[in-house]
Structure formats: C-alpha cells, structure tokens
Specification:
Elements (H helix, E strand, L loop, with lengths): L2 H12 L2 H5 L6 E3 L2 E4 L11 E4 L4 E4 L4 E3 L1 H9 L3 H12 L3 H4 L7 H23 L3 H9 L4 H7 L2 E3 L4 H7 L4 H13 L3 E3 L7 E3 L4 E7 L5 E8 L8 E3 L12 E2 L1 H11 L2 E4 L2 H9 L5 E4 L6 H8 L5 E3 L5 H16 L5 E2 L8 H7 L2 H9 L2 E2 H9 L8 H15 L6 H14 L5 H17 L34 H12 L9 H6 L4 H14 L7 H9 L6 H12 L8 H30 L6 H26 L1
Parallel strand pairs: 13-14, 13-15, 15-16
Antiparallel strand pairs: 1-2, 2-3, 3-4, 4-5, 6-9, 7-8, 9-10, 10-11, 12-14, 16-17
C-alpha cells in the first residue's frame, strides 16, 4: 500500500473507535466501555462492546472482534480500500488527500466515460420504458430489482441511442475523441455505405456491463431479445480496455466473499453468477470465453486455493474445464468439479433445487483430475497387462502439470491398483518419471487422450492425504487454537506446536500462525497487540480469521502460562485437530462408496473406513486418560 494509505490507517487508528462505530450504530457509554446492539445477529440486549483504550470492538454472542476497519468491512460488506473510503466519508476526512490514483491516459479515461454513459443509457431504457422484452426476461429469470441494480443490467434499444448521445457532445475535441474511442473499443461501428455515419453495435439486446476488478465498466455482453438475431450473446471487442481472458465477470462483487469463504466457484455465464448471487452465494465468478488468463488466475489465487469448476455440463463446457484445470494444476491448485446433473448449470440447478442441495453437492465435490481419470478407465478392465499399462499411461498427460508431486504419484498408484497391475511401486513411478522426461522435451506436440463425460463410470478411490481439501470455514478446534495462541503467544515457542501445525488442514490459518512465529521472537511485549493487528490487516487474511483474532485480542491480558499447562493444552489441540481430519477423511471415503465397481474394491474401502474408525476410537480413549 502507498504511504498515503498507511498514513490514513494511522490517522483512523488514532481516532477513538467508539467515534467511528458510533457513525454506523447507536452506542451508549458504560464505564470504560461503549455498548450497542450488535448488527451481526438479531440482538435485543446490547452485546457489542467497544473499548477506546484498546481500539477494538467485540461481540460476546458472535465471538468476533477487531478494529474499526474490520467492523466497517463486515457491516457494510466492503473491500479493505472501500472500507477506508467509507470511514473517511463518515468522519469528515478527505479521501483524496491520502489516495491519489495514477493519472490515466486521456483515451483510457474517455473509454471508461463512454462505457459508463452507455450503461446508464441502457438502464434508463430498461426502467423508463418498461419494454416488454426486458420485463419478460426479468420475469422469466426471476430477477429482483436489487439484483438488476447491483449488476446494472439494462436494455439496448433498436435505435442508435449511444451514437446519438456521442454526436451531441458540445465540445468538438471531446466529441471527436469520444467517437474515435467508441470506434476503437467497438461499441459503435462505421456505416460502410455512408460517410461519417455511425451505428450502435448493441441493439435489441439485454445488456450486462462487464467490470474490471476495481468496479470500472470495461465492456458489455449483450443477450439477444429476438429469435431472428444471430448469436445468443455477443461481447465487446478485444481492445486496450477489454481483454476477456483476464476478466472475470462478477469479480468486483465477489472478491470479499471469495476471501472470506476461502473458495471460488467458476461458472460459464453471467446468468450463472447472477443466479448464485440472488441465492446468497456470492463467491462466484464467470470466465469470459473459453479460457482463464494468467492475470485472472493470479487474482483468484491471491484470495484462495480452493477452486470449484462449475461450467456447463456440455462438451464445450467440459473441455473448457479441462483447460482451466490444467492451468490450475500447474499453479499448485487442485480444483474440484461441481456436478449439477441432470441440470445443465448452477442457475438451472438452483431454479429447480434448494440452496441446501447446492451446498451438499459442493461438499461432496471431487477433484476434477479424479473425474478425468474416472472417465479414462473403461468399465471392463482388460486382462492383458500391456493393455492395462496403456490405460495407465493415458492418465499421465493429465497428471503431468503436477510433475512428480505426491498428488500425482498417489493417484498413479491408486489407478494401478484399480487396474490390477502387479508391478511394484518403484517400477510404476519410474515408468511415470520416464514419461515426464519425454513429455517435457516434446511439450508442444503432446496430445491428451479424449475424455468423454460419463457419470456412470467408476472413480478410482484415493486414500492419499492430498485428496483431503482444506475446510472452507474455521472449525471449533481451529477457533479455540487461534484464541489460545493470541491470548498466550508463549505457546508458539513450545516444541509441541510442530505436531499441531502438522494436523492443521487449513492453509490460511497455518500461514497466519507461522507468520506469528516469525515475529514473536523479534518484538517487545509492549508491541505485541499492535503487531498482531498489523498482521491481520494484510489483504490475504480472511475476514472470518480477522474476526476470531480480533475477539481474542480484545480479551488479551498479559498472563503467561507455565510450560506444563502449555504442553497439555497443545496436546489437547493436536488430538482435536487430528480428530477433525480423521472425520473428514472418513466422510470422503463414505462418499466414494457408491463408485465402487467390484466387491474387492468395496471391501478395501470398508477396511479403510474401519481403520479410520479405530484411529478415532484410539483418540477418544487417550482423551479420557
């Protein structure tokens, strides 16, 4: 962040927190504290406590807390920068004094102005004229006014409404720049039959503005309103402002939810995103076109490593998911596949099913790479070893982006077992290593076997720990662990912390604790609270983690635990985290039971479930001792 923003954060921190929160909810003073009704639950008796001395708030019921920025972000559902801006507007600080964005070239500024004006014109047509094609679309799609407003959906009429506006700009220089820019970005066209005559690109179409990550309109997608029109959807042309590979539809609205939920759902079209949003599922974005650009992937990876592929279930959608999956694997992300069958896409699914059923599908989702492997394995496995090896080799190109990682080799060994190959592990892994060597040399000419979507085929069961994906929420044990570490940072230097971190299966929590370990030896005790607050202010920290840390910091008092208590405490957490991991593993194994195609496979799976149950029983017995 710029020095100006850092200065602003310091200025906000120096303002009594009750003064800031008091701009959002009513507070009353009680001794050293201020109390108010908590806006995060149905509160009838004030449970929100605000402490000016600590510069923090805390809700006893929700068990969350934090600084003023955390409060505003949660209450107003804002990004970090937008929360700072909102605080400035409420308490009379000039935002422009601290935040001075770089001056954009005149052409870029004009492009944004033209596109923004076009969006306003399309919205005005949609709302003022009550056009039948728009009202019919809204009714069919069950869109509420607030959804239409949030996504700024409009209607391009059959005339040249935008061209007429641009030609009416009084200033000749500004008018010429506006028309030239509109031509370059493709929102208007030249009439080939008439000199100096233009017409609108989008006519008689439902208009969906496309935004960049900062919320600026950079293009449009227009849906046809008449059967005679060609192309169900047409998008803005590629231009200096619109690069569809690096744009994710809905990202500007979804990024906070993606960070807080620690997951993203990738869908195919605008209506899929809108359908999820209107059902309260806001961590969804749509890819533009058939691929995902490096910049788009980088933006998403900065928020989460948990990807769900939920593109259309037709052949084109499946191929697009294959491309995205390969790109993700190359970036150490193992995406899961959200299956909505018999429905085509998430929007259609939610029109016919409940939100709980959607979450059930999400929780049971399998890694997309395992779906690919499943569809390569034939239902009738051949007897000849050479044929089995050929099938095994067919999965190698799909695993190649994972290189020789445990995620790849475990899947290879499980598939080899499923095929009934007798070779030992070393031989099979060497076979794969040779393939990788040849694959790297001939990368440009490598072709992958064709994969056909077939939900009736069987999936090789993986007992690899890598098939367990990090949970999307903070578990009870993880919450308690964070609270104890914040209140008693001396736990971080205990040798018992290492096995606890081993059993911690949520990357963003583990990374947070590791960062705390890094700085805890380098600071004085008096700096502790400020350092933890600075750590939680970082962009990659999820809102849910920030709130748990804030709650613990609010209750923090300097009181060290002795080594014996720390040892017992961490042993207890280690067992609880291990128990949560085992329960998650057991659930995954049980979910895989319907995919067993042979009696032997079913028996092996039951043995694994039984083994997990024994481990769980052993943990419970050791707890009682």
């Amino acid at each position: 962040m710029s020095d100006g923003i850092e200065d602003l954060k310091i200025r906000i921190k120096n303002i009594p927190i009750s003064e800031i929160i008091g701009k959002y909810i009513a507070l009353s003073r009680k001794g050293h504290y201020h109390l108010g009704l908590c806006p995060f639950h149905n509160d009838s008796s004030p449970s929100l406590q605000v402490n000016d001395q600590k510069g923090m708030f805390m809700c006893f019921v929700d068990q969350i807390g934090g600084d003023a920025i955390t409060f505003v972000r949660k209450k107003e559902n804002l990004s970090y920068m937008d929360a700072l801006k909102d605080i400035c507007s409420r308490i009379g600080i000039s935002w422009d004094e601290y935040y001075a964005p770089k001056e954009e070239p005149p052409k870029m500024q004009m492009a944004k102005r033209v596109l923004s004006k076009a969006a306003l014109l399309y919205q005005k047509v949609a709302t003022d004229n009550s056009k039948e094609e728009f009202t019919s679309f809204v009714k069919t799609r069950n869109l509420k006014p607030e959804t239409i407003k949030e996504f700024q959906i409009g209607l391009a009429p059959g005339n040249n409404i935008l061209t007429s506006y641009l030609e009416s700009i009084p200033s000749k220089n500004e008018r010429n720049l506006a028309i030239d820019t509109a031509l370059e970005i493709g929102i208007i066209r030249k009439d080939k039959n008439k000199v100096n005559t233009y017409f609108d690109t989008f006519r008689d179409r439902i208009m969906f503005p496309i935004f960049n990550s900062f919320g600026d309109i950079v293009g449009f997608s227009g849906r046809k309103t008449k059967e005679s029109q060609k192309g169900k959807y047409i998008n803005s042309d590629q231009s200096f402002i619109f690069n569809k590979k690096n744009i994710l539809y809905g990202y500007h609205l979804a990024k906070n939810s993606i960070r807080d939920n620690q997951s993203v759902i990738l869908v195919e079209g605008q209506m899929d995103v809108i359908g999820l949003f209107k059902n309260g599922i806001r961590n969804a974005v749509a890819v533009m076109g058939v691929g995902l650009g490096e910049a788009a992937l980088k933006n998403l990876k900065g928020l989460t490593n948990n990807f769900y592929l939920a593109l259309d279930s037709d052949e084109a959608g499946f191929k697009a998911m294959q491309r995205i999956n390969e790109m993700c694997l190359s970036n150490d992300i193992i995406p899961k596949y959200l299956d909505f069958s018999p429905h085509k896409d998430p929007d259609e699914f939610l029109e016919n099913r409940t939100k709980d059923e959607f979450f059930d599908r999400r929780d049971k989702a399998l890694p997309f790479i395992d779906i690919l492997i499943r569809n390569i394995i034939p239902s009738d496995i051949p007897e000849l070893s050479d044929k089995k090896l050929e099938i095994l080799k067919n999965i190698f190109p799909f695993l190649a982006p994972l290189k020789d990682s445990l995620s790849a080799t475990e899947r290879i060994m499980e598939t080899a077992k499923h095929l009934g190959l007798k070779s030992d592990s070393a031989t099979i892994i060497n076979f794969y290593a040779k393939f990788l060597s040849d694959y790297a040399k001939n990368d440009a000419n490598n072709a992958k076997p064709q994969v056909i979507v077939n939900n009736n085929q069987t999936l090789p069961i993986s007992n690899s720990g890598t098939s367990l994906t990090p949970s999307l929420t903070i578990s009870t044990a993880e919450r308690r662990l964070i609270e104890e570490i914040i209140r008693h940072p001396e736990c971080l230097s205990s040798p018992k912390m290492a096995p606890v971190l081993e059993n911690l299966n949520t990357p963003h929590i583990k990374n947070f604790i590791l960062k705390m370990q890094d700085f805890i030896y380098e600071i004085d005790e008096i700096e502790y609270v400020q350092m933890v607050q600075a750590l939680t202010a970082q962009e990659e920290i999820s809102q849910s983690l920030r709130e748990v840390v804030g709650y613990a910091l609010f209750k923090y008092e300097k009181a060290k635990l002795d080594d014996k208590i720390i040892s017992r405490l961490l042993d207890d957490f280690n067992k609880k985290l291990k128990e949560e991991l085992l329960i998650e593993k057991r659930n995954i194994l049980r979910n895989n039971q319907p995919f067993c195609s042979t009696k032997e496979e079913a028996e092996r799976l039951m043995q694994e479930i039984s083994s997990v149950d024994k481990e769980l029983m052993g943990l419970k017995v050791s707890k009682k001792k």
